[in-house]
Specification:
flat; mainly alpha
Length: about 150
């Protein structure tokens, strides 16, 4: 398989780094293993995808991870039998309401801290303990962050 045959872990890291633009690529574990063949971990596959499928995979639109839950529910709704629609529509409505609540909470915090009409902008965190304390206070006051509301923790 062209995806594993002859490809090293270092090669795979470079490909993933090049293709990733919505988050930071992280490498964990023993970095001395970079010369190991990917096929040693995944096995060599005889699966061959048609060229059109290979092309579609490489051009697949990226999805912000914050939208994954909502898109999953929408996709399930679109493909579900009619008898499941009410339940899925309720889940989509709850997810949307949760997102709106998170937006309202953080817009309110920005207004209270920076003044009415201030824009919510993100900058590089330099005061890590302050950020940690702020996140802990938010969790204590509002509960755990959702996948969506984590976008406000940058």
């Amino acid at each position: 398989d062209k995806h594993t045959s002859g490809e090293t872990l270092d090669d795979q890291l470079q490909v993933v780094t090049k293709l990733t633009d919505k988050s930071h690529v992280m490498q964990y574990g023993d970095s001395n293993m970079g010369s190991e063949q990917v096929s040693e971990f995944l096995g060599a596959s005889s699966l061959r995808l048609p060229p059109a499928v290979e092309d579609a995979i490489t051009r697949w639109p990226t999805l912000d991870s914050r939208d994954a839950t909502l898109m999953y529910l929408v996709n399930r709704y679109q493909n579900a039998p009619e008898e499941e629609h009410d339940e899925l529509l309720a889940a989509i409505t709850e997810e949307t309401a949760s997102r709106e609540r998170a937006d309202a909470v953080f817009e309110s915090v920005v207004s209270q801290v920076a003044g009415e009409g201030a824009n919510l902008t993100f900058s590089t965190v330099t005061q890590h303990q302050c950020q940690k304390d702020s996140v802990n206070a938010a969790v204590e006051a509002c509960g755990r962050f959702s996948d969506y509301s984590l976008k406000y923790v940058k």
